[in-house]
């Protein structure tokens, strides 16, 4: 049930499965100001592969009266150069006696366990793309392996936001490197949108140099 033995599943905000003989899954709802169940954070792709077909080589997965089929798969296109690799899978979920449900599955393939990818605007763009989906078509968003936060929050509130996130999803942001990664990505985002005064750019460049030195090899 658990991918990592040191990452338990909190009862608070826990997702309960109402279909099938087992109600437990290692997953929690994560709230936003407008939706108390906007996100579902669950385990990484290796565990998720038991529930979600990640390739056409996999037969449709059946769980009692529920069948999950991969209908289409393509590479996610970023509008800038990045080393990040994200696959987009289009899933069809059928429940006996119910109309089919269609789900878009974004799979960040090369996020390192307990590490960090190269810091750029990829997570901001990906989250923005997902959030732009009309809420009428999206009941829950399901990021596995990567926990995301509101990218427009003031930097002084990052610590409070991450503490609140960890209250909903146990041990989100597992390492110091991931904590630094969040800061680095948000600083790049603020610089891109010209929210930072020119006078702080030298400090940003120094932070970036220190960040790269601290996370090298992770």
From TrEMBL:
The protein's name in its UniProt record: Tyrosine-protein phosphatase domain-containing protein
Ranges for the Tyrosine-protein phosphatase domain?
1-189
InterPro entries per record: Oocyte-zygote_transition_reg, Prot-tyrosine_phosphatase-like, PTP_cat, Tyr_Pase_cat
Q: Which PANTHER family match?
A: TYROSINE-PROTEIN PHOSPHATASE, TYROSINE-PROTEIN PHOSPHATASE-RELATED
A Gene Ontology molecular-function term?
protein tyrosine phosphatase activity
Q: Do you know which SUPFAM superfamilies this protein is assigned to?
A: (Phosphotyrosine protein) phosphatases II (SSF52799)
Q: Name one Pfam family in it.
A: Y_phosphatase
